[in-house]
Design goal:
The protein is mainly α. The protein is 58% helix and 0% strand. The chain is globular and about 35 Å long.
């Protein structure tokens, strides 16, 4: 769905976590998707040009 294989998606999530992992913290309500699924969703939306 994202166009990336598992290793590529995992590497991308690791890079995003390095850059902004501290800011991806729940403040109040629990996070609905989590970092991995959020990155996968954004990649899928970019690929489908929504």
């Amino acid at each position: 769905m994202t166009g990336l294989d598992d290793g590529q998606l995992t590497d991308l999530v690791a890079r995003v976590h390095e850059v902004c992992g501290e800011r991806f913290v729940s403040r109040g309500r629990p996070i609905a998707l989590g970092l991995f699924r959020s990155v996968a969703m954004v990649v899928c939306l970019l690929r489908k040009n929504l």
